[in-house]
C-alpha cells in the first residue's frame, strides 16, 4: 500500500518519539512517511531521507525532510518552529489529496506556539484541515474497537450548547457520520444512536424541553429517509456493552458526553478521526504531553491505533 503521511506535530512534544515508536512496532507492514525536521527525531533513529514521497524505503523511518531552524528542546515549545509545523501539515494534506500518500495521520500540535510564531488563527487541526480542503462542514469522531462517538458540538462552554445545537447542525452531523460509516468503515447499513441533550432525554419534558421541541422530530425525519437511527436516548444507559452492540456510532450532543465514555473504555487506544474531508485523516487522541517529552515515557498506543485505522479506512475507501 501507499505510505501514510505523518505530520510531525509540535517538535518539543511527544509527537516525534511516538511516531518512531509506532514505526518500530508496526514495521514494514504499514509504511509511513514522516514530514518534519529530522533533527527533531530521537537519537539513533534509522532514517531514510527522501525528497520523492513515492520512493519509500523498507526497513527505514522514511522522512520528507524540512529544515525548521533551531533544535527542539523537549518540553519547551519554540515559536520559531511554528511555520515549519504548519507547512508540514499543508504538505501532508497536498500529498494525500494528490493520492501520493494513502491517508494523513497528524501528531499533536501546540496551538499557542503556532499562534505566537506564525499567527495561526485556527482553533485547531480540524479547522485548519477543513480550510485547506475547502470543506464547509466536518465532524470529529473518536473511535476505538469498542465504540465510535461523534459530538455534535465540541469545544464550547456547556452553557452555550443549547444555543449552538440546532436541527440543521444535528442533521448535518448525522448525515456526515452516516456517509463516512459506509465510505470509510465499510458498514453497508449503519446503525446510529443519538443521545438526548438532557438527563433521561428530557423525561417527557420534565427535565428539559429540547427533545420534545425538536430533537424527536429531527430524528424521526432522518428515519424517514431510510436511515437506521434511534433516539434520543438517555446518555447514562447507552454506553454499557449490551447497548453498544446495538449501534455502529453514537451521536452525542456535547464534548464530554462523547469523550468520557470512550476515554473510560479505551483511554490509550482512542483515535481522533475527521469526517467530511475529501481525504482520510486520523490522529492520536491526546496532546503534546510536554511534561514527559523526551524522557522515553510516552505511550505510542494511540498513535499506533491511529495509523492502523488510517490504513484500514484507506483500504475501504480506495480498495
UniProtKB/TrEMBL annotation:
Keyword Repressor among record annotations: no
Binding partners and assembly: Homodimer.
InterPro entries per UniProt: PdxA, PdxA_fam
Note: The active site is located at the dimer interface.
Alphabetized UniProt keyword annotations: Cobalt, Cytoplasm, Magnesium, Metal-binding, NAD, NADP, Oxidoreductase, Pyridoxine biosynthesis, Zinc
Family: Belongs to the PdxA family.
Entry note: cofactor: Binds 1 divalent metal cation per subunit. Can use ions such as Zn(2+), Mg(2+) or Co(2+).
SUPFAM superfamilies in the record: Isocitrate/Isopropylmalate dehydrogenase-like
UniProt catalytic activity: 4-(phosphooxy)-L-threonine + NAD(+) = 3-amino-2-oxopropyl phosphate + CO2 + NADH
Binding site for substrate: 125-126, 263, 272, 281
Function: Catalyzes the NAD(P)-dependent oxidation of 4-(phosphooxy)-L-threonine (HTP) into 2-amino-3-oxo-4-(phosphooxy)butyric acid which spontaneously decarboxylates to form 3-amino-2-oxopropyl phosphate (AHAP).
One GO term describing the cellular component: cytoplasm
A Pfam family this chain is assigned to: PdxA
Chain positions recorded as a divalent metal cation binding sites: 155, 200, 255
Protein's name according to its UniProt entry: 4-hydroxythreonine-4-phosphate dehydrogenase
GO BP annotations, alphabetical order: pyridoxal phosphate biosynthetic process; pyridoxine biosynthetic process
Pathway listed: Cofactor biosynthesis; pyridoxine 5'-phosphate biosynthesis; pyridoxine 5'-phosphate from D-erythrose 4-phosphate: step 4/5
Source organism of this protein record: Yoonia sediminilitoris
Subcellular location: Cytoplasm
HAMAP family to which the protein is assigned, alphabetical: PdxA
Cofactor needs: Zn(2+); Mg(2+); Co(2+)
Molecular function via GO: 4-hydroxythreonine-4-phosphate dehydrogenase activity; cobalt ion binding; magnesium ion binding; NAD binding; zinc ion binding
EC number assigned by the record: 1.1.1.262
Amino acid at each position: 500500500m501507499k505510505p501514510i503521511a505523518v505530520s510531525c506535530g509540535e517538535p518539543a512534544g511527544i509527537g516525534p518519539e511516538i511516531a518512531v515508536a509506532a514505526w518500530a512496532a508496526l514495521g514494514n507492514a504499514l509504511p509511513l512517511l514522516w514530514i518534519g525536521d529530522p533533527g527533531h527525531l530521537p537519537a539513533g533513529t534509522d532514517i531514510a531521507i527522501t525528497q520523492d514521497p513515492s520512493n519509500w524505503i523498507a526497513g527505514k523511518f522514511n522522512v520528507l525532510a524540512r529544515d525548521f531552524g533551531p533544535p527542539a528542546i523537549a518540553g519547551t515549545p519554540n515559536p520559531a518552529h511554528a511555520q515549519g509545523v504548519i507547512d508540514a501539515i499543508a504538505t501532508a494534506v497536498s500529498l494525500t489529496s494528490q493520492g501520493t500518500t494513502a491517508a494523513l495521520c497528524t501528531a499533536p500540535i501546540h496551538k499557542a506556539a503556532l499562534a505566537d510564531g506564525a499567527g495561526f488563527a485556527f482553533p485547531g487541526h480540524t479547522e485548519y484541515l477543513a480550510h485547506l480542503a475547502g470543506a464547509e462542514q466536518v465532524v470529529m469522531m473518536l473511535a476505538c474497537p469498542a465504540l465510535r462517538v461523534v459530538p455534535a458540538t465540541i469545544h464550547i462552554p456547556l452553557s452555550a450548547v443549547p444555543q449552538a445545537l440546532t436541527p440543521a447542525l444535528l442533521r448535518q452531523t448525522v448525515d456526515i457520520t452516516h456517509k463516512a460509516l459506509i465510505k470509510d468503515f465499510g458498514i453497508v447499513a449503519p446503525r446510529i444512536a443519538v443521545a438526548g441533550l438532557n438527563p433521561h432525554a428530557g423525561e417527557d419534558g420534565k427535565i428539559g424541553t429540547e427533545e420534545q421541541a425538536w430533537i424527536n422530530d429531527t430524528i424521526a425525519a432522518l428515519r424517514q429517509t431510510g436511515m437506521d437511527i434511534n433516539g434520543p436516548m438517555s446518555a447514562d444507559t447507552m454506553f454499557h456493552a449490551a447497548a453498544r452492540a446495538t449501534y455502529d456510532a453514537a451521536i452525542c450532543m456535547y464534548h464530554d458526553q462523547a469523550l468520557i465514555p470512550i476515554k473510560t473504555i479505551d483511554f490509550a487506544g482512542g483515535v481522533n478521526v475527521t469526517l467530511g474531508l475529501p481525504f482520510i485523516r486520523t490522529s492520536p487522541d491526546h496532546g503534546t504531553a510536554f511534561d514527559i517529552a523526551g524522557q522515553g515515557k510516552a505511550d505510542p498506543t494511540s498513535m499506533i491505533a491511529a495509523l492502523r485505522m488510517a490504513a484500514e479506512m484507506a483500504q475501504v475507501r480506495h480498495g
